[in-house]
Write a structure and sequence with these properties.
A: mainly alpha, Arc Repressor Mutant, subunit A, B: 80 residues, 4 helices
């Protein structure tokens, strides 16, 4: 499937986008869809257990945007307004879902095959330093880096699934999706202090899981 | 300048990384890091955790059916 999304294309300023949407400019609406939907799907999956549910949540959100754009007052940015609708929609749906699907397997994101690249070695050095006397971590082979990367991602998916939902939504918005702390506070309607506490706890839990995993992996490799 | 114990540092990591610590506290934090390898490892692991989170591959895009449905809905909504 061709990749329609041009993540490097910047959207015009909010005022221009809003005016274009109100004027019925389809290209602008399509650009918003293509720029934000994947992030919206990921955030929705913080609350609902399947990709199918997440897609319905995102669809409902966009429909609400279409219906609400004329009345949008611009008190927040367009993005935080849309994500706030998304979060509220996802929360309601998440609350209604029966929990028959085990969260940890359900939460694994439905990602692009071979999507992404292995993060810099620096990330893994912190958890899996090269044994003393061996070459510096930069000399890890590409396959070694890929294995580390995929193991780390799996552990992250498990760690995220185990978090309380409020911690999970903060860490997904901040660290996975790259929202600023101001945006997160607007989207989730929480204070900066509260946001920081939730983020701290979430990062601590994920960090611990990575530490435990790599420590165990290293021990069994010896 | 504020001096920190290792235990206090752990609690302040997130604020530190967000550059939300007041200047005096930030300096105290940096000074502690420069002479405490276990805290410096600890902060490195936080940064590494954030890096790995930020590098997760993106979700697959909306299905073509959903995308088309939304474009149609948009088109119809502006017709009135």
């Amino acid at each position: 499937m061709p990749d329609r999304e041009e993540t490097t294309v910047r959207l015009p300023p909010d005022d221009d986008v809003i005016a274009a949407l109100r004027a019925g400019d389809e290209a602008t609406f399509a650009a918003l869809l293509d720029t934000w939907s994947r992030g919206m799907l990921r955030v929705a999956r913080s609350y609902v257990s399947t990709r199918e549910s997440a897609e319905e949540v995102v669809q409902d959100t966009w429909l609400a945007v279409i219906n609400g754009i004329d009345d949008f007052e611009g008190r927040s940015s367009l993005k935080t307004w849309i994500f706030r609708i998304l979060v509220n929609t996802a929360m309601k749906r998440g609350a209604r879902e029966s929990r028959t699907v085990p969260w940890s397997s359900a939460f694994a994101p439905d990602v692009e095959p071979d999507g992404g690249h292995a993060p810099s070695s620096r990330a893994y050095d912190a958890f899996a330093p090269f044994p003393a006397g061996k070459a510096p971590a930069a000399a890890r082979t590409a396959p070694e880096r890929e294995v580390l990367a995929s193991e780390a991602r799996e552990q992250i998916a498990l760690a995220l699934a185990d978090l309380p939902v409020r911690q999970r939504s903060v860490i997904v918005l901040r660290d996975v999706e790259g929202c600023t702390s101001e945006e997160v506070c607007e989207i989730l309607e929480i204070s900066p202090a509260n946001q920081r506490v939730l983020l701290h706890r979430a990062r601590t839990a994920v960090r611990r899981r990575l530490e435990d995993y790599f420590e165990t992996a290293q021990r069994s490799a010896k | 300048m504020k001096r920190f114990s290792c235990g206090e540092l752990v609690e302040l990591v997130t604020a530190y990384l967000d550059e939300a610590l007041p200047a005096a506290e930030r300096k105290g934090f940096d000074d502690h890091l420069s002479c405490c390898s276990s805290c410096s490892d600890h902060v490195a692991r936080y940064r590494a955790t954030i890096d790995v989170l930020g590098d997760l591959p993106p979700e697959k895009p909306l299905s073509p059916a959903t995308r088309d449905h939304l474009l149609t809905a948009f088109r119809r909504s502006r017709r009135a």
